[in-house]
Amino acid sequence: MGGNLTATTLPARAGARSTRHRHARATLLFLVLAVAVACVGDGGLWPSPAAAGVDSSIAAALSSAGLAGSGTGVYVWDLDTGLPIYEHNSSMGFAPASNMKLVTSATAIRYWGTSHRFSTELYAPDLAVDAGVLDGDLYLRGLGDPSLSTRSYQKDVFDLTTASFETFAKTVKRKGIKKVAGRVLGDASWFDKLRTVPYWKSGLQLECGPLSALSGNQGLDNGNRVAAPATWAAKLMTTALRNAGVKVKGKPGAGKVPSTDLLVKDQYSAALAGILKHMNKESDNFFAEMLLKGLGKDFYGDGSTAAGTKASKATLHAMGIPNDSYVIQDGSGLSYNDRLTPATVVRVLGAMRQRDDFDAYYDSLAVAGEDGTLEDRMRGTAADDNAHAKTGTLNISVCLSGYVESANDHLVAFSILMNGGSMGTSDWGVATTAQDKIVVALAKSSLPGEPVLAVTPVLRQHSVSAFEPVDGSGGRLKPVVQP
Length: 483
Prior knowledge:
Elements: H1 18-24, H2 30-38, H3 52-64, E1 72-78, E2 83-88, H4 100-112, E3 119-124, E4 133-134, E5 138-142, H5 151-158, H6 165-174, E6 179-180, E7 184-187, E8 220-221, E9 224-225, H7 229-243, E10 247-248, E11 253-254, E12 262-268, H8 272-282, H9 285-300, H10 305-318, E13 326-327, E14 339-340, H11 342-353, H12 358-363, E15 366-367, E16 388-394, E17 397-405, E18 411-419, H13 425-444, E19 459-460, E20 480-481
Parallel strand pairs: 4-6, 5-7, 6-10, 7-11
Antiparallel strand pairs: 1-2, 1-18, 3-5, 3-12, 8-9, 13-14, 15-16, 16-17, 17-18, 19-20
Helix pairs in contact: 3-13, 4-8, 4-9, 4-10, 6-7, 9-10
C-alpha cells in the first residue's frame, strides 16, 4: 500500500437491542456537540481521558497496518454523551468512495421523506377499444423510478417488491385490450440526456447502468449496459404484454407522450425506505445516481446530476457543515474528485440520528457479519450483528463509516476514510482488517459519561417557495438538526 494508503470502508450494523437505545436517547445536547465539532479543526479534538483504552486500540490498529499517516482520516464520536473518542486527520478531505451514499441517502430522506414513492405512467391515444384492438401506440413515461423492473429481476437482484412491467401488462389486459395495433414507446424526457456522470474516470460507467428517467432492470441486459434505456424499457413492456396474452404489432422504440393521450395507469415504486435499504446494503451506484437526478428535477427543476448535487450541498449546509469541507460531484461516490472529511461524515450520521425517521436510515446500512457488503466481515466478534455501516472502495480509496454500540450501550458514530495511490486486493485486505479491528474495539469498549438529553433542539428546514406545492403530510418539511 505505500505511504499514503487508501483504506476500505466497512459498513457495520447494530442489532435489535438498539431499537430501545435509538428512541430513548434520540436527541443530543446541541451545544456540546456544536462546540466539540468546531474544535476538530487543526487537530483540536480532545478525547476523554476515560476513553484512553479504546483510543490506544484504534491508534495501534492503524499503526500496525502502516495506516497512521496522512492517507488516513478517522473520527469517532459518542452520540449519547456528546464526547469525542478519537481523531486523526478528521478535518482533511478524502475521496469517500461509496461513503458518499450516506450523504445522498440523508438528502433523499430530508427532501422526500421515507414514504416517498416514484411513479411511472402508461398512456394510450384512446381508452375506447374496438373489438379488443387498441388503435395506436402505448407510451411508457418514466419519472425517475430506479427500481422499475421485471418480477424476476426484483427477485434475483433487488429482493424488493416494487413497480413491475407485469403489473402494467395486467392493467392493459383488464381494459379489454387484446392487441396493440401500434407499438410501445418509452418517454425518458423527465431527466436530461446524459447517461453517465461527466466527472467519472474512463471505465467507471461500467459500475453503473445508463442513467435515464425511464429505465427497466437498471438499464441492464444480462448484466450489460444497454445503449437506449427508454427503448429497452419499452421492449421489456412489450414482452410483458405478449406474455400476458396481449399482441403488440410494432417494435419497441422511444418517443414523447403526445399531449392528447390519456393516462391508462400510474404505478408506484416501493417506498424510499426500501429503495435505500437495497442501495446502501448492496452499494448500488445506479440507485444513488438516479435518486440524485430525481432530487434535482423535483426540487431544482432540472433532472441532472449537477442539479441533484445542489440538494446534497443544501442538506450539508442545513446541518451546519462548512462549504469548504466537501466536494460533491455525484451521488454514488464513483468520482475520484469527491471529497468528504471524517468530521463531516460523522456530523451527517449524528444529524440523521436526531430525526424521527432515523430507523429507515440506520436500517438501510449493511450489518456486520450479517448482510450486504459487510456479510463476511467481523463475524463472531462484538461487532457482529451490531455495527451498521457503509463500505466504500475505489482503486484509491477504502472507507467505512457508520454506527456501532459499545459494550455499555452507547451509540457511537465513526468514519474511517483511507486514501492512497493505486491499490491492489492485498492492500484492500490490510485496510479492511484495520477498520474491522477499530469497529470491534469500539463494540467491546465500555465508554465513559452519562447519556445527555437536550431540551428542544434547534431545527433547520429547507426553504419552501411560496409557489411550491406543499406535501400535506409534511414530508417535505422534515427538520434536519445539527449533531
